[in-house]
Structures are given as C-alpha cells and as structure tokens.
Amino acid sequence: MPKPFDEHADATHITASAIVVGRKGVVLHLHKRLRKWLQPGGHIDAEETPWDAARREAHEETGLSVELVEPAPRLAHVDVHPGPRGHRHLDLRYVVTAPPDKPAPPAGESQQVEWFPWHRAIAMAEPGLEGALRSLQPGDAVLRAARQGDAAGCSSVYLRSRRFALPTVPVVHNDSEVRRWMADEMVGRTDMTVAEVDGVVVGLMVLDAGEPGEGWIEQLYVDPGRAGRGLGRQFLERAKLRYPAGLQLWTFQVNEPAQRFYEASGFVVQEHTDGAANEERAPDVRMRWAPPTG
Question: Which fold has domain 142-289?
Fold first, then answer.
C-alpha cells in the first residue's frame, strides 16, 4: 500500500474514526447510509495523521469541541469492514473527549447525534465498537448474585469470551441456543455470580456442590475488555469463601493462559483427558484447589 490513506489509490485503505466519550457517556450518530448508530469517522486527508483525522471527523460530524486523549493519541481499536463502491476500510479508532454539550451537527451531516449512557451505547454498538466500549467503560466491577434480567448480558460475556480466548475450540451451539440456555437453565436456576459495571455485565461465575463438601466451578468467564484487571481473582476469592474445603474445575488444554491463572491461584492439575466427555470433544484438564494445611 504505497498510499495507504488515499481512497483513490487502492480499494483497500486506512480510515480513521473517533470514539467520543465524556461525562455524559458516549456520542454516537445515526449513519445516513447504513442506518446504524456508529462513531463519527471518515477518510484521512493528505498530510494528515490518522488521529488528527479522527478528531476532525468527530468535530465535523457532531459539532462538539473534541480533544485527543493526552499525552499521546489513544488507539482503542482497529476494525476491518467493507466500505462503499467495493472498498475495504482498515479503520483506526481513537479515543477523544468532549464536554457535556448538546451535539450540533452542521447541515449536510446526520442530524441524529446523541449522548448515550455507557450501558446503552454498548447495547447498541456493532461487535467491533462494542468491544472497544467495553474496554473503555469507566468504573469498577461489583460482584452480586445473578438476576433474571442478566441473561442477555451473561450470554454476551460467554460468547465474547469463548471467541476471544478459545478461537480453536468450537462453540457447538449457535448464539440463539446459547441465549436460550442462559435464560432457561442458568440464570435464576444455578448458583451464579455476575460482575457488573453500571448496568453492563462484564463477568460471570457458576458454582455447584461436589463431594465431599467441595465445590465445582462450572463456569467462569470475564469479558475480554475487562481481562487483566483482577476480576478473575475476585471471582475465585468468592468461590473459595463459598467452598473453603476445596474447589475443582475443568478447562481446555489449549487455554494455557487460564491454566497459568488457576495455577497462580493455588490450583493443581489432577488429570488430562482427550475431551471425549465434553460437548466440544476438545482435550481438557481437571484442576483442584485445596486450602493450606497446618
């Protein structure tokens, strides 16, 4: 790509967009052609950096006074998607901030530009933008018992986590089946704990009683946007308090980061299998935690 920003030089080219955030939440506009609520963005002008293009497009399409995050431009996401006229866009998405003013898009731009609270923006976003917003959402996660209204959020976390952490392990049920399973069989019918940030479910754990007096971690998923922030450890601490005599779990052998995480939390490998007993038929490993003795 000798001219990566030039839309006339190659059907595949780099574009820039802005994830506009502030005290009131997230700014989205209803794209006139696609009829979807999206972040502002567009093509990069000659002699312009991608982050300056993102800031310019945000101002032009919202009328807001926006600024790049200091001290350096923050690239939140790179998305590949089809554009008009058979083009293919490699979209660089930067974080910009805006004051809590009412958007005032100029004539010619979409007039439907609004501030949305984080939970609504995440629920409305297309998958790529959803992931970026989940990673950017401010606030600390709070652990609580699952409620019936959490089924949709738990399904999203489960599906996103599986696709991110286990791309080579098939999900044997389609998205609709997973959502139905979560609503009909898991939420409200199991010992489930969820992690929530201002109305957005970002993690889940399901426990079950074992023998003799030990517990099983049947499910433990943290949204990829919240990975590495200590949420998994919080879930394990709660599980150990619930079952102080010991815990067991299964995880896939290919999920080496999960195995390292559990080992760092005191779990020890008990056995490896070829996966014949799980739905995915993927090799797995059983791990056990026991409280310290003496």
Answer: Aminopeptidase (3.40.630)
